[in-house]
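User: Design a sequence. Structure:
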């Protein structure tokens, strides 16, 4: 299946990111929300009244799906940073992100102090 890749720097992180990514994509499939645009446009829509429960259910799904897509985007960015050789450094301040944090959140783009700052350096837009 996958050709053996040279274990370059961050090979573990890359594998973890790719694993997580396919896990998430499988979850999105399970939600039945394939199209991010469709998810973004989900509203209360046409059905009113007995449709409320339905709408709320769909909203929860949409919320989940949005969170999921945001995570996929972060994972993609992390993979790009691996390719660019900047992985493991805070995109805001350039400080090395501690290994424990990268192990817990392999797609972490910010060091702890930066991610604790309200707003400011939101990476994924
Ligand atoms: Zn930082």
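Assistant: Done.
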């Amino acid at each position: 299946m996958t050709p053996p890749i040279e274990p370059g720097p961050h090979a573990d992180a890359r594998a973890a990111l790719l694993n997580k990514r396919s896990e998430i994509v499988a979850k999105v499939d399970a939600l039945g929300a394939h199209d991010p645009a469709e998810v973004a446009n989900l509203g209360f829509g046409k059905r009113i009244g007995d449709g409320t429960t339905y709408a709320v259910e769909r909203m929860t799904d949409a919320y989940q799906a949005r969170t999921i897509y945001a995570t996929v985007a972060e994972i993609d960015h992390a993979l790009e940073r691996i390719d660019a050789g900047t992985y493991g450094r805070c995109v805001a301040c350039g400080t090395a992100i501690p290994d424990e944090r990268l192990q817990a959140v392999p797609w972490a783009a910010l060091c702890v102090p930066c991610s604790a700052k309200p707003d400011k350096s939101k990476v994924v837009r």
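The pocket of zinc ion is lined by residues 90, 92-93, 95, 110-111, 113-114 (CB under 6 Å). The helical segments are 11-31, 36-41, 52-84, 99-104, 112-116.
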